[in-house]
Design a protein that fits this description.
mainly alpha
């Protein structure tokens, strides 16, 4: 994902490499741990709600282990079925809502974008950082379903929910890529400009050359 790749390499990876395409999904799952601790501090609900938080720890642990090529641990239970049970049992509580989020990422990994979208649209959380990622994943689903215009709207919405140097430029960049798919090059260029101007210290601004992406969106040859 650095400038050492040609744009053809990046385009090919985005098209064919699930790990490249779904990088934000895996990263979002890893960030769940941080969000969980924030949830513990931010919410003081009834005991049943507190108990619900334990529902996703085990399946999440095994899901993260699956992403580690050096870990050969086999889950004694199907993490997806565990999450489905947690969603059904604790719907509306913290544990149920976080379980929906994690389950949605697993549906996406398996190409079940409609099912993932249904879950993501039903999640209710107070944490704005997690809210941004939820909307961003909805954008990912729409993009994979080739509904690029809807994806752009969701990415832009996600970028504004909690403006910061991580989620905002990441979703603006995705908005740019999807705008290019719609051949809306001026719109794509505007998103790349926004990243360079408002988020100069972000990963996208530092590791990706926004000027080159602007040139590509304008159909100029890149050396």
């Amino acid at each position: 994902m650095t400038d050492n790749f040609s744009f053809d390499d990046i385009k090919e990876k985005f098209k064919n490499n699930k790990f490249f395409r779904f990088g934000s999904i895996a990263l979002s799952a890893l960030l769940i741990g941080v969000i969980v601790f924030l949830g513990y501090r931010q919410f003081i609900w009834k005991p049943d709600n507190e108990k619900s938080k334990d529902a996703y720890f085990e399946p999440l642990n095994y899901i993260l282990k699956e992403q580690d090529p050096n870990d050969t641990t086999v889950a004694p239970k199907d993490p997806i079925k565990q999450l489905q049970g947690a969603v059904k049992k604790y719907d509306g509580k913290i544990g149920g809502e976080v379980s929906k989020y994690i389950l949605a990422t697993q549906y996406m990994r398996n190409g079940k974008y409609k099912q993932a979208l249904t879950l993501l649209e039903d999640i209710s959380v107070e944490d704005t950082y997690m809210s941004a990622m939820i909307v961003g994943l909805q954008g990912d689903c729409k993009s994979e379903m080739k509904k690029y215009a809807e994806a752009v709207e969701l990415y832009v919405e996600a970028s504004k929910i909690n403006e910061n140097n991580f989620t905002s430029p990441m979703y603006l960049f995705k908005a740019g890529l999807n705008s290019e798919k719609l051949k809306k090059n001026a719109q794509a260029s505007a998103y790349y400009d926004e990243i360079a101007f408002h988020y100069p210290n972000s990963f996208e601004a530092k590791q990706k050359n926004m000027t080159k992406y602007k040139s590509r969106s304008a159909n100029k040859k890149i050396n």
